[in-house]
Design a protein that fits this description.
103 residues, two-stranded antiparallel sheet, 44% helix, 4% strand
């Protein structure tokens, strides 16, 4: 018998929903852990390395952040010197590099 967690009514084992309130029933039966153990110890974990696709994605992210830092450095220098014309070629150059590298 399965007891409903909502209303407390006892229902048949085959029932999926409570006959009284209609809530979904959840079985509390668990497999016996002694049945599925083979008696042998677990093998040690061996790291297989990083997936090449994840490594390429991570490298592209690092490269994009490097471009952002370079652009921020140029902006900081322009702010201190109070001349903004170096920002124009810096933005154009970094944009061209990012476009060619397909970041």
């Amino acid at each position: 018998m399965i007891t409903c967690t909502g209303c407390g009514k006892r229902n048949a084992d085959e029932a999926r929903f409570c006959e009284e309130c209609g809530r979904k029933l959840q079985s509390s039966r668990r497999a016996n852990p002694a049945d599925d153990s083979s008696g042998r110890p677990l093998s040690p974990f061996r790291h297989q390395g990083i997936d090449p696709l994840a490594r390429a994605s991570l490298w592209r992210m690092v490269e994009a952040w490097a471009y952002v830092l370079v652009l921020g450095g140029v902006a900081a220098v322009c702010l201190v010197r109070e001349m903004w014309w170096p920002m124009y070629p810096a933005v154009a150059l970094l944009g061209l590099i990012a476009w060619l590298r397909r970041i």
